[in-house]
Sequence to fold (628 residues):
Amino acid sequence: MNEQPNGVEAPGPERARLDVDIACVGFGPAMAGFLTTVSRQLVNADGTPAVESATVPGMPPQVLCYERADDLGFGVSGVVTPARAIRASIPELENAGIPMSAPVGEEKVLYLLDPIGASRRSGTLKLADALIRACRWALPVRDHALALPWTPAFLHKRGGMVFSMGQFMQWVGAQVQSTGTVQIWPGTPVAEALIESGDPTRPKVVGVRLLDQGVDKQGQPSDGFTPGMEIHAALTVVGDGPVGAVGQQLDDVFGLPPEHHIRDWAVGMKFVVALPEDTPLKPGTVLHTFGYPEPEIFGFLYVHPDRVASLGIFVPSWFDSPVRTAYRYLQHWMLHPYLWRYLQGGQLLSWGAKTLGESGRRGEPHLVGDGYARIGEGSGSTNVLTGSGVDEAWATGVQLGEAVLELLQTKQPFTRENLEATYVARRRASWVDQEARIAEKSRDGFQRGVVPGMIGMALTGLSGGRLAWPGHSRRPWERIPSLEDYYRGRIPAAEVRQIRDECYARSVSAHAALMERAGWPVIPYDGRLLVSHQDALLLGGKVQAPPGYADHVLFPYPELCQRCGTKLCVEVCSGQAITPGAQGVPDFDREKCIHCGACLWNCTFAAPENSERMAVAFRAGTGGLHSA
Fold:
């Protein structure tokens, strides 16, 4: 609505309307499980509808899915998964011909020692490192890495699969659309859910509105203005991930269940690499690491067929650093002697980054309401003990799909009560929820430090959830020290401020200069695998930002930005899309944004109206990194 000078709201633009039975937001693993389940049972073998559409009589239910990315296969994330739920839906999984997939073979968990002495390690870790080095003759230590002789069962992925998520999602999308019962529309971001509040005590979701086109950076109509269409549906399925605009909106409108919160996050930075021709690594090899480049950072390397590897790191919100740059830390991780012996001579093929919701079941929102249901990572399905999320997300989609079919076949409406009795009941009775309850407190110890966190995970895993190291999750904005405090004892405060001011005067982030001053070596760029952040945007993919859309990253509280001396959003930005700006307010370049969403939770100020949110807005938008 637009406000006129007399204060009366003028009607907004006239919007086209489309009525469907089910509108879906986002096409990730959860939505793939949902659509796979539903699409198979909407039509009988003779081609007649198994159930009839309420919007197009005589036809099967009209199911449309809207995805922001321009293609279903643009995700670069490698994943290792037990694939329990996926196999239940696709029994022929191993022989399905999915590109870049391989059964899990060798698995290792490695504790990486610091080979250069630059990481920030507690006294306890320094003592442990010294003992490991002193006893390396009796331990499986090689190239500054300790291979754990025993891996807890809860970390194993035996019998699982290594996938490329991009290839897997493209394959599933083709299978779903080939049924003719589902339409998937990539490159079509959803701006918001349509919510009716005739009864203010019981708001109802009645569909979604697509993003306006032909607008300027501020969202005001410009040349070729086309209002986003309204898609009205009896059921809206929301699977837009942990930072999706619709998920955020539903959290704001409906709140979270008592004692639930969304405070723990991570950004995953991933490379896809062509390994050297003489690599000894076999397809299906899985390496998990911890301890370096900083003790809080976890890493992974998964080997696909044809000498291709997916590798990367997870930088969590409880890594209390004001310069927690995933790209730079990933390069230091790759240069660790244990890993570099496999990677040297390789070639960067593509890369990307993604925010991960790390609150697990504690971050579970209201799963259903009148006219809507939530599935996948944004619904709190990730298991924070095993670090597994894809199979769990798929399972929640299948559970909702079975519930929807039941309600369609019995001609029952998609009310909160009916969805609770079908979808939520299935989810509560499943292994997804049972294992999530075991894992719920497993990472509490990380709120107190790395050592308590690792002990806490072991206690929880070995005791089946009966034991955990206690800890209280803090909001991300409460955790971050100032640059001066973080580098106290390493760099004088006056020098920290000088380095920061000089970098910001050039509109560049300060993390590289500060890290190098604190002892981190310069990255030896080779033009193939180790390249500058800017060159990576060209070498490993291309950011596509179609014209005519509004900026999706906003700084709605400029007065807070002007007071900020840390500019964490600038330092963490995965695509260098956020840079220091005039008068202290960051600039945003949509043509560099890779849609990782890290800026949403990397801010040192709370939003004035909601202390659970930060002072950065991440809204619906188009584009992102199109991997080469």
Observations:
- The two ends are 41 Å apart (CA to CA).
